[in-house]
Design brief:
The protein is built from four helices and 30 strands. It is mostly beta strands and 401 residues long. The strands form six sheets. Strands 15, 16, 17, 18, 19, 20, 21 and 22 form an eight-stranded mixed beta sheet that branches. A five-stranded mixed beta sheet has the order 1-26-25-24-23. A five-stranded mixed beta sheet has the order 2-30-29-28-27, with no helix packed on it. The longest helix has 21 residues. Keywords: Membrane, Transmembrane, Transmembrane helix. It comes from Nocardioides glacieisoli.
Length: 401
């Protein structure tokens, strides 16, 4: 599928070596542009052709996406703003230009959705959390907030500052201790902030350990017992290096480096669950697409890695434009991509494509389930599975009923 001309210009204007945030902004822009075009009915033939190409099989061993078997669900597939929410939140959700800006899973099956409505000038954001049948929502204004899952809820950053929000709407202020190079402890959580990656410890954001002042962090993950895995962005091949005490750091810190050569721009992305970690390496093509160059999984906090097989990373049908990466409770890895829908990578590194809709835009782990945002009419929907493979049940997104 070719990019629209105006989007090609937008992509060409970007810096030649994006970090992961810039990569995701690009993928999000493509997603929002595509959804707007579909809604107007101007690109139905292009969309159908794209879906048909995927259904024909584009993975290395020519397998087609596994069929999904919808499970019985009490939800009838229609959505409207939840009238239990505050009126200013409902106004954002009732916007004709509503976009699901981001979604994040939480503890014990909770979830949080960040919505943007652009009937307003400027566009307005609303955050809605869901815990079972209970919902909480608040309008965040026009400050381009970010939401990240952390113990006890979600870390939210907006124009008012940084705070932790629980599923019941309780908030606690979070303090940033500033730049530097800190340590890592059990119970820390690696989070992306407006000032770069930090460790959340209690009510404080502290610096990540760093092997050198010029080490550029693109992604980080901390296991429950305090083992930190850090990935960098840059140009070159991948080299894994665990720095022991002789390097001045605890052996629990695993830095994933890039070395300069002529291999092109690379951005490394991490996700984890327990001691299970996934690493995806993204490229930066001149045509504006973001190819997946490789994927690896680890079951010992990044000490050893298993390369993914049956993952097409070359040619015109290669995997491209990843929008989300998650690791389930059983160690299975999931990627949502524009080209291959949902990719499931088992603990042996075997990749299987699964098609749940015309487009899957996000994935996250929620307790023992994996949940995917799928294309469903105006609002899209959330579909979750206990095995992440065959049985899926739809439900409305947080804020909708």
């Amino acid at each position: 599928m070719n990019l629209p001309q105006d989007l090609q210009h937008e992509v060409a204007a970007r810096a030649p070596q994006p970090g992961f945030d810039a990569v995701m902004e690009r993928v999000d822009a493509r997603r929002r542009r595509r959804r707007t075009t579909i809604a107007s009915g101007l690109a139905a033939a292009v969309v159908v052709a794209g879906v048909a190409a995927v259904a024909g099989g584009v993975v290395g061993d020519a397998r087609s996406p596994e069929p999904a078997s919808p499970a019985p669900s009490p939800w009838d597939g229609t959505s409207s703003p939840d009238d239990r929410l505050p009126s200013d939140v409902v106004a954002v959700l009732d916007d004709d230009q509503l976009q699901l800006w981001s979604i994040a899973g939480g503890e014990d099956g909770t979830s949080a959705a960040l919505w943007r409505g652009c009937d307003f000038d400027p566009c307005q954001f609303a955050l809605v959390t869901r815990d079972g049948d209970e919902v909480f929502g608040e309008k965040l204004g026009a400050s381009f907030p970010t939401v990240s899952p952390v113990p006890g809820g979600w870390l939210v950053q907006d124009a008012r500052g940084t705070f932790r929000l629980s599923a019941s709407g309780e908030r606690a202020e979070i303090f940033d201790t500033g730049p530097g190079s800190g340590d890592v402890m059990a119970g820390d959580t690696a989070v992306s902030t407006a000032d770069g990656w930090r460790l959340l410890r209690g009510d404080k954001l502290i610096p990540l350990p760093s092997p050198s002042p010029d080490f550029e962090v693109s992604s980080a993950y901390v296991t429950p017992d305090g083992q930190l895995v850090v990935a960098s962005s840059g140009v070159g091949r991948i080299e894994h290096a665990t720095l022991g005490s002789e390097g001045g750091w605890s052996s629990s810190v695993n830095f994933i480096r890039t070395l300069d050569d002529d291999a092109g721009t690379r951005t490394q992305v991490l996700a984890g669950n327990g001691d299970d970690v996934a690493l995806v390496v993204l490229g930066d093509d001149p045509d504006g697409s973001v190819p997946v160059l490789s994927a690896q999984v680890s079951h010992d906090a990044g000490r050893t890695w298993v390369a993914t097989v049956n993952l097409d990373t070359e040619g015109g049908d290669r995997v491209r434009n990843m929008s989300a990466l998650a690791v389930g409770a059983d160690g299975t890895t999931y990627l949502t991509t524009e080209s291959h829908h949902l990719l499931r990578i088992d603990d042996q590194g075997d990749a299987t494509p699964i098609q749940l809709s015309a487009f899957e835009s996000s994935v996250f782990a929620s307790g023992d389930e994996v949940c995917v945002v799928v294309e469903r009419g105006r609002y899209d929907a959330l579909t979750c599975s206990p095995d992440g493979l065959t049985e899926w049940a739809d439900q409305p997104l947080p804020g909708l009923g």
